[in-house]
Each structure stands twice: as structure tokens, then as C-alpha cells.
Amino acid sequence: MNSSEKPAQVVVCKQHGRWHVRCQVLGNREFAKRREAILAAVEAAHSSGKNGRPASVVMVDREDALKLWTYGVDPYPPSMSPAVLDEYDPA
Fold it and tell me: Please, which of 7, 29, 35, 70 could form a disulfide with 54 given CB 3.0 to 4.6 Å?
């Protein structure tokens, strides 16, 4: 990784009832379930890291951003709890 190059971010967010993943590796993809979106985002971040550009998966809601997974820090495949991966839609 070039020292001036920032780690990539893979963003997961929910819009109009669908889960979206946005990143340079995947482009913009849409998923019906949160689990599918998170797993696709982790796969994209892992692929980016293996290709020399570490990446993090960040879930964004209306008020906060939560880092879920980081290449080189967290295990791959992810060992996230079902509460993180399963469908959950805070009010």
C-alpha cells in the first residue's frame, strides 16, 4: 500500500427497506437481508486487503457509523455473533 493511500472503506447502509453495500471493489450492490450485505462487504474488504489495500467494513445508520470488520485485525471468515449478522432493524 502506498503510504499516502488511505485504507478503503466498505459501507453498509439501509435505504428504502433494502441493504446497500458501497465500495470500489463491489461498486454499489443491493441486498434484501442485512446478513447478505455484511457478508458481501466483508468479502470485498478481505479481497481488497489481499490485493494490498487494507479495508474496513463500516455500517452507517442515520446517526452513527459502526466499524464491523477490519482486514488484518479481525478473523476471516468473520466470526460475528448472530445478532450482528442476522436481520435487525432498530426503530
Answer: 7
Give the integer Cα–Cα distance in Å for 56 and 44: 9
Please say whether the dihedral angle defined by the alpha carbons of residues 77, 81, 84 and 87, taken in this order, is positive or negative: positive
CB 59 within 8 A of CB 13: yes
Q: Tell me which residue of 14, 27, 11, 17 sits closest to 65, measured CA to CA.
A: 11
DSSP secondary structure letter of residue 17: T
The pTM assigned to this predicted structure is 0.77
Q: Which three cell numbers stand for residue 24?
A: 470500489
What is the Cα–Cα distance from 90 to 79, expressed in whole angstroms? 22
The SS3 call for residue 54 is: coil
C-alpha 80/C-alpha 91 separation (Å) is 22
